[in-house]
Amino acid sequence: MAAYLIAEAKVGDPIAYETYKALAEAAIARHGGRYLARGGQTRVLEGRWSPPERLVIVEFDSLAQIEAFYDSPEYHAARAARRDAAEMNILAVAGLTP
Fold first, then answer.
1. Residue range 23-71, pLDDT digits in tens
2. Which of 30, 45, 56, 57 would you call most buried, defined as having the most Cβ atoms within 10 angstroms of its Cβ?
3. CATH number for the domain including 81?
């Protein structure tokens, strides 16, 4: 069953964030992830949701695949590069069973 990684980022250092993005992109690809949305325009349609500065959605084949990606040495390096570049909220959600 597909699963989705959803990340909300508040970027403080755009130059350092570019390093994080490159490392994260390579780690995501290595673990079979596919970007569905990456920093595009957002619109709040209802409720009190604060529009994120940057929203990323990545599809993986399973929650286990997301966990393997998140715990991988490649993504640990990306997270270290992001430490002073951005604040991040990340969650994973399972998709619908076919």
1. 999 999 999 999 999 999 999 999 998 889 999 999 999 999 999 999 9
2. 56
3. 3.30.70.100
